[in-house]
Design goal:
two-stranded antiparallel sheet, single chain, mainly alpha, 4 strands
Length: 182
């Protein structure tokens, strides 16, 4: 996927997340982009590592910074007690109009991810994205119980019940993702 196509997909993802009630801070965008790429197969081309709060891409961070420099998104402080939200700017609409085929090709995957993550809090996003990351990279044949154990190994601050719930949720999402072309 070319850079401008990727930016258009990110813009649409941010819009879809906001429509579903997301704060749309960088953590939300990071985890949603990870699921968009590694759960439903949109070829974004970002490299993710398991970091402090789950999967993180320094490439994506740089891309969001570039999008800010290009006037496609901005940061908006909604509450001084929290980090800023990422908000599409008017230039984003012009770019989206140039890439309608790209948007149409990936709209169902974007909607899938936004539906599942839009209302989640950061701690939930960490658990869910981490469970997917560990399943894909380290335990692709693991059942939910083994996956929960692996999540706890990598993230000991996550309670076993929360890890189990995240593992079951990710297993369900993997099945559902097949319906949207993943």
């Amino acid at each position: 996927m070319q850079r401008l196509q990727r930016d258009v997909v990110l813009i649409r993802l941010i819009e879809a997340l906001r429509d579903k009630g997301s704060w749309c801070g960088e953590t939300h965008v990071q985890k949603a982009a990870y699921l968009l790429q590694d759960l439903v197969g949109v070829p974004m081309g970002f490299d993710f590592i398991l970091y402090k709060h789950g999967p993180y891409s320094f490439d994506l961070r740089d891309e969001l910074t570039g999008m800010r420099a290009d006037g496609l998104v901005s940061l908006k402080v909604q509450d001084p007690n929290y980090g800023p939200s990422i908000v599409p700017e008017t230039n984003a609409a012009t770019l989206k109009a140039r890439f309608t085929k790209t948007l149409a090709m990936h709209e169902s995957q974007i909607a899938f991810v936004a539906d599942r993550l839009g209302s989640k809090r950061v701690v939930e996003l960490e658990r869910l994205a981490t469970a997917l990351f560990i399943w894909k990279r380290y335990a692709p044949s693991a059942d939910a119980d083994l996956l929960a154990t692996r999540v706890r190994f990598w993230k000991p601050h996550i309670a076993i019940g929360e890890a189990s719930e995240a593992a079951r949720t990710v297993a369900r999402w993997r099945e559902e993702a097949l319906a949207v072309g993943a």
